[in-house]
Structure formats: C-alpha cells, structure tokens
Amino acid sequence: MSEHEPTLEDPGGYLSGQLLIAMPGIGDPRFERAVVLICAHDEDHAMGLAVNRPLDGLMLSDLLDRLSITPQSSASSALDEPVLLGGPVERERGFVLHTDDYHSENSLSVAPGMALTATREVLERLAHGEGPRRSLMALGYAGWGAGQLEREIRENVWLTCPADEALLFGDDHDHKWSQALAKIGVDPGFLSASAGQA
C-alpha cells in the first residue's frame, strides 16, 4: 500500500485497507447497512469482508468444534466471538482478519497493523491462546470484477473511510454502520435511500 491515502483518481491508489459503507437503498439486501473492509484491490478485482454481519447462533467455539479443533482454556475469551458473514461468495470458505502481531507465510497484509489469513493454522493458534491480539472470523467474502467497485463508488452505492482497529474488531455489530458514518462526519438521518450524483 502506498504511503498516501488511496483514491480512485490515482491509478496506483487502490482501496485495500479501506472500509466501504453501504448507502441506504443499495438495492441488495445482502449489503444493506454493510461495512466491508477491502482486503485486496487491483485493476482486475477487489475482495472484501463484511465486518458487521454476525451469523445467528454461530460462535467461533462452535466452528472450532465442527473442525475438530480442541481449544485450551487460555483461549476462552477469543472463542466467545460470533462468526461473521463476510459476504455472499464462497460462504463455506473461512477467513480470519487479525492484527499483524500474528503472521504466517499464508497471511496477506491488508493495511498497516492488519492481516488476513485463511488457513487452519491460525484457527489452531486461536484455540490455543497463541493467536493474534485481536481477530474476527468470517465465512464468505464480497468480490468485484475489474472496474465494478470503482463504478459502484462513482454511482454513490458506497462511501469509503479509513479502517481502524476499534471499528473492525469491536463487538457492537449493530452500530458499526452508524459508527463508520460518524467517523467521516455523516449523520445517517440525513442520507437518502435514492442514490444519485450531484
């Protein structure tokens, strides 16, 4: 990632490490009030994880049990977190977004201080209390083809803002959308459900 803030106008300024905030009236219930961290973005594609969509009744401890990973008692607090729906693509595939104090050869740096790992090893580390300081587990991801995300942003489907650890890893999933909007000075009450251009 470059040292300057990424922008759509800068050809090298992709949105990896930025948050997408769904505008009201997005027209797709899978993304209504979604907050999506862009994990990878280049001229050919973009990939992100929704960070505010807990799957009803599925906790990380349940997922570890299904994978026959036995947790140690020292890891109990990390295992009480809900598993999130990262997006509609490959919903059976798991991703752990985490602080970069844990890094394996299979980890992808997303932004300064953040990485993404999609291996069993990171789950085993979490189960043994040896994983990253902060993390979230998501099933599935959101994906865009070449130019699709840029077009959606131009059409005011998404707002963008910098990601921060408190917003990403906080457990107030019901309010992450309004918190992300507040971070860029937007009051959700003033947003219209009909997108357009000024």
Explain what the structure shows.
Strands 1, 2, 3, 4, 5, 6, 7, 8, 9 and 10 form a ten-stranded mixed beta sheet that branches. This protein has six helices and ten strands, in the order ββββααββββαβαβαα. It has helices spanning 60-66, 76-79, 120-127, 148-154, 165-169, 176-183, and strands at residues 18-22, 35-41, 45-50, 54-59, 82-85, 89-99, 108-111, 114-117, 135-145, 158-162. It starts with 17 loop residues before the first strand and ends in a 15-residue tail after the last helix. The longest helix has 8 residues, at 120-127. The model is unreliable at 1-12 (pLDDT under 50). It is an alpha+beta fold and 198 residues long. Helix content is 20%, strand content 32%. The protein is globular and about 50 Å long.
Give the number of DSSP strands: 10
Instruction: Count helical runs.
Output: 6
Shape: globular
* SSE pattern: EEEEHHEEEEHEHEHH
Name the beta content range. 25-35%
> End-to-end span in angstroms?
30 Å
Mean pLDDT, nearest integer? 86
Catalogue the unreliable spans.
1-12
Let me know the largest β-sheet.
10 strands, mixed
Query: What is the C-alpha radius of gyration, as a whole number of Å?
Result: 17 Å
